[in-house]
Amino acid sequence: MTVFGYHASHEQHSPKHLLEYVQHAERAGFAVGMCSDHFHPWTPKQGQSGFAWSWLGAALQATSLSFGCVNAPGWRYHPALIAQAAATLAEMFPGRFWIAVGSGEALNEHITGEPWPEKPERNERLLECVQVMRALWSGQTVTHHGRIVVEDAKLYTRPVRPPLIFGAALTSQTARWIGSWADGMITVSMPDEEFRAMLYAFREGGGAGKPVKVQASLAWAPTDSEARAAAHQQWAGNLVGKEQLATLRMPEDFEAASLSLAEVCSQLPISSDPQVHLRELQRYVELDVDEVYVFNVTPYQREFIEIFGEHVLPALSKSDNR
After folding, report:
1. 3-319, what's its fold?
2. Strands 212-218 and 184-188
């Protein structure tokens, strides 16, 4: 059956409050969790950007949920360090930590001062990082000289089972590519036709039978007007095109590229009515998605968790008859 979870946005909320929210989400019936992994927020108005890896240990200890995050090894993170961090969490919390990897955004990765290449080159670097991480998890002593450099690295603390690596994809081309090496795929909300094309490409590329996760963004607030205003204030900079998402460098750049209120309303489910969001989320059950991480982009987190726990999650459970 499709499992529904809670997405914790480090760009919008302090780590302390996010920890409270995931505990509240577990009590309300959300079954899994994930978080973002940013150095900068998308826009200055979002105003936060805590360190995901410190927070993940606390969240796993404070709840019984599984957690993961989308990471871009090979830039601000050396893959050996991410392999060590992931191995430690997987050893402490067996079966409850997964990692997704992607080619990254300049917003977070430019801080090292390295050149930011085109997507094909970033993909090649990402695949090298994945190979290094898996070799370290298997107990090998790794020396690697390629797009990244590793010298005589060995992990001495390793889990019995290494964490699953999901590939992050926004296009069918990337979905097909990650099908050949990832343990599963994670993507974001998109129209059904586009999503079905992504699934087909992933499965044809080698992902048949592998799990699929979706981060489903929406905007809920106590009133429709509050939901519209909050969605535009918080998320207008995030709905730029895929190329801009990867190449804009600073929160101010995303702010300058922000969409109008009408454009935001056309791209994001926005409503105070939980039934509107229920219908939107039900399509992922029909599409056989394994896990859906519900992401309310507005500041109204506690109220959202309570409303969805009462009116949306039980109905989603009843609608999944697979």
Report:
1. TIM Barrel (3.20.20)
2. parallel
**Cβ atoms of 83 and 132 closer than 8 Å:** yes
Look at the pTM and tell me if it is higher than 0.70. yes
Q: Which residues pair with 214 in a beta bridge?
A: 187, 292
Task: Give domain limits for the chain.
Answer: 3-319
38 catalytic per annotation:
yes
203 DSSP 8-state letter: I
Contacts of residues 263-266 at CB distance under 8 Å and 24 or more positions apart, as own/partner, are 263/236, 263/239, 264/228, 264/231, 264/232, 264/235, 264/236, 264/239, 265/228, 265/231
Q: Is 105 a catalytic residue?
A: yes
Rounded CA gap, 119 and 136, in Å? 26
If pLDDT is split at 50, 70 and 90, which confidence band does 320 have? low
Catalytic hit among 10, 13, 24, 38: 38
Q: What are phi and psi of 217, to 5 degrees?
A: -85, 145
Annotated catalytic residue: which of 7, 11, 40, 105? Answer: 105
Residue 47 — left, alpha, or beta (φ > 0 → left; ψ -120 to 50 → alpha)?
left
pLDDT tens by residue, 225-281: 999 999 999 999 999 999 999 999 999 999 999 999 999 999 999 999 999 999 999
C-alpha 86/C-alpha 97 separation (Å) is: 8
